[in-house]
């Protein structure tokens, strides 16, 4: 079958209807299809980043457009056309000219390095909670309005909390909005290596022009500038920073510590890093950990029972990467052992990952601890008494049972005086609200939790 110009118009119309005028203009105006044998359509693209983007966002759509218009099942292959664009190792730049037309090849091009942007690190895969709300909002703002919202944006937080994810999500959004943007996403280590190599080659000018002519520069793990002797690199970065900032180009940085705590970082850089927005990523609370876990298992299309989610969220409490690791390991173990994913299986796996953190907290042990702390009787917690000196500790107990055990709302309700699940939810909500505004109370709950985990 030949894709005539008329058919092509119909295919494109179908796509436009599905994604809207704006997206269509950004991504499909200049697109070309090349029909190959065996029902394959090749789509030439300027570089690997385009390819990853289309793979992720538009492949299914293209296939269904072809199916609808031509009533035939096509394979769609995105091809990177120019060899020049295939070996970008440490940088990420978009060509300013339109995607070049490719001559179709029967054999696929040599597999290119996928570069540094991970197609999974997008905003729609970033779960937001109180610990990362500010950093998330700021990253989105700079992506949508480069150099208008905050400049620089400095995101810091300890390992595995989502710094790289946010930086790259911002890059994706900026590129989606303006595909011709000249954008560099680079780790600080690679930036430094690139600089050192250019000094050795006597090609400092090339290095300078490269970064200073960018529209957006995102440097990941900038604290690397403070490791060891990096005077030259700091100096070079200082000038790059100034050039970009003066030209109103967006700078996005991530670091494992706030600017003033990066060792040996020159004072003038410390102060510049604070010019725009400094946003911290905190460790996720139980709720966010559960939400992230649910998202991860959903993406993997695997069923995890609720009690398994609760259990992982309880045991792994400080690093999102480790949450993911646990999910993967549980899935792998379940396959290997040919057993369904269950609480018992999860606990076995978690004991390996975090020995000593899989604790048998029960409703009884919570009632024990809480009653001792508030100086009331266990039977009071299990009663229907509504006097404040008892109902409040009972709410605390219910809250702890909710976040520290794998019991259902109904089971918790039954354990605390035959309450129904809405009452349990109400108690949990009340305690959460109070935790937000009462530091002293927060310490109390932390103390009880530590006690229970002993
Ligand atoms: P960092 O750069 O701070 O060490 P990463 O950005 O590499 O951390 O995040 C570690 C892992 O956790 C990544 O796989 C990332 O996708 C995931 N992750 C981090 N934060 C979130 C979040 N809020 N929602 C979903 N996944 C997240
Ligand atoms: Mg990182």
What do you see in this structure?
This protein is α/β, with parallel strands linked by helices and 454 residues long. It has 19 helices and eight strands. It has helices at 5-28, 48-57, 59-70, 133-144, 163-177, 188-201, 204-212, 231-246, 267-273, 286-299, 306-315, 320-337, 343-353, 363-374, 378-381, 388-404, 409-415, 421-437, 439-453, and strands at residues 34-36, 40-45, 75-80, 153-156, 183-187, 216-220, 250-255, 277-280. Strands 5-6-7-4-8 form a five-stranded parallel beta sheet, sandwiched between helices. Strands 1-2-3 form a three-stranded mixed beta sheet. Helix 1 runs antiparallel to helix 3 (59-70), helix 10 (286-299) packs across helix 11 (306-315) and helix 18 (421-437) crosses helix 19 (439-453). The longest helix has 24 residues, at 5-28. The structure holds adenosine-5'-diphosphate and magnesium ion. Magnesium ion binds next to helix 5.
Q: Main traits of this protein?
A:
454 residues; alpha/beta; GMP Synthetase, Chain A, domain 3; Rossmann fold; Helicase, Ruva Protein, domain 3; 4 domains; five-stranded parallel sheet; three-stranded mixed sheet; 19 helices; 8 strands; globular; binds adenosine-5'-diphosphate; binds magnesium ion
Order of helices and strands: HEEHHEHEHEHHEHEHEHHHHHHHHHH
Sketch the major β-sheet: 5 strands, parallel
* Residue-averaged pLDDT: 87
Secondary-structure-based class equals alpha/beta
Would you count the extended β strands for me? 8
Are any ligands bound, and if so which? adenosine-5'-diphosphate, magnesium ion
**CATH A-level architecture of the largest domain:** 3-Layer(aba) Sandwich
- Per CATH, the class of the largest domain reads Alpha Beta
Percent strand: 5-15%
Q: Helical region count? A: 19
Gyration radius over CA: 27 Å
**Fraction of helical residues:** 40-55%
Spatial arrangement of strands, main beta sheet: 5-6-7-4-8
Q: Which regions are unreliable across 5 or more consecutive residues at pLDDT < 50?
A: 83-115
CATH topology of the largest domain, which one? Rossmann fold
Shape: globular
Count the domains: 4
